[in-house]
C-alpha cells in the first residue's frame, strides 16, 4: 500500500564541525513485552514472494483539524484521498510505526501531521482484503515554533512515533519533533447524549425557572468519530534536536535522546525529567561524538543502549548509578587499516539501533552495512550484511550531493529471523539470518498495481549489464527508503519512499 507523505529534512547544527559537515544529526521502536509467535513461514527472500496490498495517499489540501468535525475519518480513504501529481516538502514521510498488535499503522510527516491507518477486518466476501489498511484518523501533532531567545526556528516535522500498549478501548502514542514530545489519546465515539435538563437541544443553558420536569439523559447512536486529543506535553528539556524516543517495558517511563543527552520521563509528570546520559564536554571544542539513537531493552526496564557517530554502541544499566556516564558494555568493531579512507568516519556513524524482540541481540545500521551484535560479545558483530556495497566507488559524489549523510533505519521481523533496511532508487533490502539469502526489492509508483508481485532487482557494478539489471550509474539518489516498519507478528511491511507509503504482504500460496 502506498501513501503520499514529505522527505526527511536534516538540519545544520552549529556546535560541532562534524555536525556542520553532515548537515544534520548523526543519527526506536518499542518492542512487545513478549516475543511474537514465529511466522508461519519465513518471508521469501526469493523471487515473487511479496505483493503490493494497496496504495494510500495522504491529504494535503484540507484543514486536518476541521476534518475530524466534517468528515467521518473512516471514509477519508474513499471520499478524499486522490492521486496527486505533486508533493510538497510538508508531505514527506519522516517516521512509520506499527502498534503492538499490528492493527494500526501510524505515519508522521514533515508537516507535523500524524496519519493513522487501521487494518481492514476480514469478511467472508472479501477475504483478500485482510491485509489492507485504510485511514483511521488524521491530526496535526506539532506546529512550527520560534525560539526567540536563540533566534531558532523549530520545525514541526515528526521525528519519531512510538505506540503504548493498549490498555482499554483507546489508543495512546508518543510523537516528537526536535524539541517537544506529546502523548496523544486516540479514541472512538459513536454515541451522543441527549435529553439534558439544564441545556436545550443546541447546547445553550436553559432558564432554571422554565424547568418543570426531570428528564433522564439517554445515549443516541451517531456516525463514528475518531478523536485525537493531546493528554501530555513534555517540553523544555532538550537543548539539541531529539532523535529518539523509547517507551520502557514498565510502561510508566520513557526516554528521549538528543545529540548530547538522554532524559528519562514519567508519563504522569510533564514539568521535569531526569538526565541519565550527558556526554557534553565542558569545552565544546573537545566534542568528538554525538548520540545518534537510543532504545530501551524490550524486557528489562533498567537497561538501554545508545549509539554514537563514531560507530560505537553503549549498553547502560540504570541500577549502577543515577547518571549513566559509565557504560556497562561497549560494542565496537576494530577498523581495518587497509580500508581507511577520508569517508571512514562518516560512513561508520550509526543511524539506527534496535533491540531484537527476544532482547538477546542488537541491530545497528551505518551507511553501508547492517550489523547484528550479541549482547554477550562486545568486540565484533556476529553478523554483517552489505546493504549497497556497490556505492563504495561513489562515496565522493555521494559526499558532494550530501547523500552520504542520509540516516537509514532498520527493523526486525516478528521472529527476529529477517531484517530489513532501505537504500536508494526506492530499493529496500531483506536479509534472512537463517538461510543467509538476501533480496533487493523496489517500491515505485510504476509497480503500484494492486496485488502486484514484486520482482527482485539487481544492480550491475561493471561489465555487461543484463536485461533485468540496473546500472549503478543509473541509480536515482533522490529516491530513497529511509523509514520502514514490520508488522509485529505477520509478514506485512510498510515502506516509506519520500512522500509515498507502500504496504506489502508476503504472498500466501
TrEMBL record:
Belongs to the phosphatase 2A regulatory subunit B family. The keyword Cell division does not apply. It comes from the Eukaryota. PANTHER family: PROTEIN PHOSPHATASE PP2A REGULATORY SUBUNIT B. This is Serine/threonine-protein phosphatase 2A 55 kDa regulatory subunit B. Keywords: Repeat, WD repeat. The keyword Membrane does not apply.
Amino acid at each position: 500500500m502506498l501513501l503520499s507523505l514529505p522527505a526527511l529534512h536534516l538540519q545544520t547544527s552549529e556546535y560541532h564541525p562534524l555536525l556542520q559537515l553532515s548537515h544534520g544529526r548523526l543519527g526506536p521502536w518499542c518492542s512487545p513485552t513478549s516475543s511474537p509467535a514465529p511466522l508461519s513461514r519465513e518471508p521469501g527472500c526469493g523471487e515473487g514472494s511479496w505483493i503490493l496490498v494497496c496504495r494510500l495517499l495522504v491529504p494535503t489540501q484540507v484543514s486536518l483539524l476541521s476534518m475530524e468535525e466534517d468528515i467521518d475519518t473512516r471514509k477519508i480513504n474513499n471520499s478524499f484521498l486522490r492521486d496527486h501529481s505533486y508533493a510538497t516538502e510538508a508531505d514527506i514521510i519522516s517516521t512509520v510505526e506499527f502498534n503492538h498488535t499490528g492493527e494500526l499503522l501510524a505515519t508522521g510527516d514533515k508537516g507535523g501531521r500524524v496519519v493513522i491507518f487501521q487494518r481492514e477486518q476480514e469478511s467472508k466476501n472479501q477475504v483478500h482484503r485482510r491485509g489492507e489498511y485504510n485511514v483511521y484518523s488524521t491530526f496535526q501533532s506539532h506546529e512550527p515554533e520560534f525560539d526567540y531567545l536563540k533566534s531558532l526556528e523549530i520545525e514541526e516535522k515528526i521525528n519519531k512515533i512510538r505506540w503504548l500498549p493498549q490498555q482499554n478501548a483507546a489508543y495512546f502514542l508518543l510523537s516528537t519533533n526536535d524539541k517537544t514530545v506529546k502523548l496523544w489519546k486516540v479514541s472512538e465515539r459513536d454515541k451522543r447524549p441527549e435529553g439534558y435538563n439544564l441545556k436545550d437541544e443546541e447546547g445553550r443553558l436553559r432558564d432554571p425557572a422554565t424547568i418543570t420536569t426531570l428528564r433522564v439523559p439517554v445515549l443516541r447512536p451517531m456516525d463514528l468519530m475518531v478523536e485525537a486529543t493531546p493528554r501530555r506535553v513534555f517540553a523544555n528539556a532538550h537543548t539539541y534536536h531529539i532523535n529518539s524516543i523509547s517507551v520502557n517495558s514498565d510502561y510508566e517511563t520513557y526516554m528521549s535522546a538528543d545529540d548530547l543527552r538522554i532524559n528519562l520521563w514519567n508519563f504522569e509528570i510533564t514539568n521535569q525529567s531526569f538526565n541519565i546520559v550527558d556526554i557534553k564536554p565542558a569545552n565544546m571544542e573537545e566534542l568528538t561524538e554525538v548520540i545518534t539513537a537510543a532504545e530501551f531493552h524490550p524486557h528489562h526496564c533498567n537497561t538501554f543502549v545508545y549509539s554514537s557517530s563514531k560507530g560505537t554502541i553503549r549498553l547502560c544499566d540504570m541500577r549502577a548509578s543515577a547518571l549513566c556516564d559509565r557504560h556497562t558494555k561497549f560494542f565496537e568493531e576494530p577498523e581495518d587499516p587497509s580500508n581507511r579512507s577520508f569517508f571512514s568516519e562518516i560512513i561508520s556513524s550509526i543511524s539506527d539501533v534496535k533491540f531484537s524482540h527476544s532482547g538477546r541481540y542488537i541491530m545497528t545500521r551505518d551507511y553501508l552495512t547492517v550489523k547484528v551484535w550479541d549482547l554477550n560479545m562486545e568486540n565484533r558483530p556476529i553478523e554483517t550484511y552489505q546493504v549497497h556495497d556497490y556505492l563504495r566507488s561513489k562515496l565522493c559524489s555521494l559526499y558532494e550531493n550530501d547523500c552520504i549523510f542520509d540516516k537509514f533505519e532498520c527493523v526486525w521481523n516478528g521472529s527476529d529471523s529477517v531484517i530489513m533496511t532501505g537504500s536508494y532508487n526506492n530499493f529496500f533490502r531483506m536479509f534472512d539470518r537463517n538461510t543467509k539469502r538476501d533480496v533487493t526489492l523496489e517500491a515505485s509508483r510504476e509497480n503500484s498495481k494492486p496485488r502486484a508481485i514484486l520482482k527482485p532487482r539487481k544492480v550491475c557494478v561493471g561489465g555487461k549489464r543484463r536485461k533485468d539489471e540496473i546500472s549503478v550509474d543509473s541509480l536515482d539518489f533522490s529516491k530513497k527508503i529511509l523509514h520502514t516498519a514490520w508488522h509485529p507478528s505477520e509478514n506485512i511491511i510498510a515502506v516509506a519512499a519520500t512522500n509515498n507509503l507502500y504496504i506489502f504482504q508476503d504472498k500466501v500460496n
